[in-house]
Design goal:
Rossmann fold; five-stranded parallel beta sheet
Length: 351
């Protein structure tokens, strides 16, 4: 008897994964009618889950409250359901695109660590025919959006300026071809999609059509959450660099809605750039970065993308503008701290 099919949506990050996962979880009944099982983590976890990060995180790092035995229990439950209903299993966790690497890992360690992790995934799902789905985004757009999220969430090294983040992170988060090749060597096949093609219309419908299925969804895919503006990203990076109380992600979101803060942004003579600025040092820097992936992208397009399903060309526009790295003064930091009470931030954050 042939094995049930298991699609694993692996991201990348910043390719509409949260919007897709929300749509999948809200349309479990419709997906079931179309032959897809998109499970949550019950009965191991009592609360419904939109995605399957815990399942795969457990294979990459220690995960409190979720054991290896729990992973196997869930996979056995899903296998029984897929076999009985002749369904395909659909799992989604963008962390699969990067586990277990960190930006501190040595370059030569990456292939072995990544392979061991993916082999653990293959072993966990050995009763299925596993096909990873990788959604790619042109590297300059991806790394800029990824950096903004990194800074917002105050991850390690989130004080780094954009150009330094690229230098440090590029060996790990931009290994598109290496990652795809490794997945194919372990699972035997991989489906590669372009975010630029998927977002031209309803994201989830386009996703399933790319898999050869026309799924009826109860509602359109939620809007993809926009990234921070360049201006807000630079302010947040500066706050991160001095461990300012407003750097806490929850506090920062409250700060953004503070009237006094908005006035502070608009004060004449301030060198804060504008919300339309972008993080690249110049047009030439961005173009050089894109060109450095030209050969890799040509191979990916040849081997995995269909006609019209590749990265779009980068076109410089007259409205493109670039912002120098921001420098806040001690007075700025003190003034930002005074907005705490106005923005509803817990005063204990200042202690």
């Amino acid at each position: 008897m042939s094995k049930p099919l298991c699609w694993i949506h692996t991201g990348l990050h910043k390719t509409g994964t949260t919007a897709l996962q929300r749509t999948f979880s809200q349309n479990r009944s419709n997906l079931s009618k179309a032959g897809f099982l998109y499970p949550d983590l019950r009965p191991i976890k009592s609360r419904p889950a939109e995605a399957h990060h815990l399942l795969f995180r457990r294979l990459g790092v220690a995960c409190e409250g979720f054991s290896e035995a729990d992973c196997k229990t869930l996979c056995a439950i899903w296998l029984k359901q897929c076999t009985e209903n002749k369904s395909s299993l659909l799992l989604s966790a963008e962390s699969l695109s990067r586990y277990p690497t960190t930006i501190e890992a040595l370059d030569w360690e990456w292939p072995d660590k990544r392979r061991r992790f993916l082999e653990g995934v293959a072993d966990l799902l050995q009763e299925y025919r596993v096909v990873p789905i990788v959604v790619l985004r042109r590297q300059d757009e991806f790394i800029e959006s990824f950096y903004k999220e990194w800074v917002l969430k105050r991850h390690e090294n989130s004080h780094l300026r954009f150009e330094d983040f690229i230098r440090v992170s590029a060996p790990f988060y931009l290994r598109f071809e290496d990652n795809i090749t490794l997945m194919k060597s372990i699972f035997g096949e991989v489906r590669v999609l372009s975010y630029h093609a998927l977002k031209g219309g309803d994201l989830a419908r386009n996703f399933f059509q790319a898999l050869g299925s026309d799924v009826e969804l109860e509602s359109p895919t939620p809007h993809i959450r926009p990234s921070l503006s360049t201006q807000m990203t630079e302010i947040k990076r500066c706050l991160n660099s001095v461990s300012h109380p407003c750097a806490d992600p929850k506090n920062f979101s409250k700060l953004a809605g503070c009237h006094a803060y908005q006035e502070w942004l608009q004060r004449p003579g301030r060198n804060l750039g504008s919300s339309e600025s972008n993080l690249w040092a110049s047009s030439d820097a961005r173009r050089a970065f894109i060109d450095s992936f030209e050969q890799e992208n040509a191979r990916i397009a040849r081997d995995y993308f269909g006609d019209g399903n590749r990265f779009p060309e980068y076109i410089e526009t007259s409205s493109s503008n670039y912002m120098e790295a921001l420098q806040l003064t001690k007075g700025d930091y003190r003034e930002l701290a005074t907005f705490v009470s106005d923005s509803g931030i817990d005063q204990s954050a200042l202690r």
